[in-house]
Every structure is written in structure tokens, then in C-alpha cells.
Amino acid sequence: MMALKVRIEGLRELEKALGELPKATGKNVLRRVLKKRAEPIAINMASLAPVRTGALGRSVDHGPIGRLSRRQKAMHRKWGSSTAVEWFIGAGTNPQSVTQEFGTFKEPAQPFARPAWDAGKMQMLGGIKDDLWMEIQKSAQRLARKRARAGGAG
């Protein structure tokens, strides 16, 4: 198995720029970028899912931790940062997703999640930085316009 190394430069500057926005705005920026970048992987994952009844492909989704089952939430550890945003891609609460992905002693594996991730991970990771800069700039401009309106009204 070959280890994957990804190097994304400019994250310190991004973190500083995000820190200059209000906390809620910064989290919304991160959510918008993650949603945009996760969508192609989720679509590919759904298309690669084995089709018997179609339930597995329909269960593939992406989103924040709120979409996980109670058990998945309990098993998941949150990061220490209050400004961290997490995004999940997968078959959610569908129990057949694990047996399809990894197989059983009776049935061979029919992976769909890992191939979708492998096909889209570099595009996703590479585009996050550019998308974040664009979203930070848009949010900063909206914030400046809002403050200018509030200052002009007072």
C-alpha cells in the first residue's frame, strides 16, 4: 500500500483571513466550500454503488455530522477547535454499505466508496484552497457593505 502525501500551501494565511471574519461567518464559508467540493465525490459514489434495489445508491449523501446515525455520532470524536467544520461523505445510516464495501465471508467485496474517494480526492483537496480564498473575499465584501450601510444609517 502506498502512502498518500498531500501538501497544501497557504493554509496559515487562510486561517488568518478566516479569523478576521466573525466566527459564524467563517464557519459558513467553510461549509459552503466543503459542500461544493464533496458533491462530485458523493455523486460518483452513488453511481458506483451496486444496484440491486437501488437503496444503497440513494442513501449516499454528504453533509455535517447531523446526518450521521446516533451510533456514528457517539463513535466520532470532535476536534478541539470551536471553529472547526467537519463534512462527511458516505452511505450514512445504511447498514448494507459496510458489507458491500468490504464483503463478508459469503459475499465478495463490491467497493464503491473508496474508488469514488480515490478518483476525486486530489481535485477536492486541490480546489479547497482556491475556493476558500474566493469565499473569504466574498464574505469580507458582504460584511464591509453591511457595515457601511449600518454606519450610513446611524
TrEMBL record:
It comes from the Bacteria. InterPro entries: HK97-gp10_tail. It holds the Pfam family HK97-gp10_like. This is HK97 gp10 family phage protein. It comes from Acuticoccus sediminis.
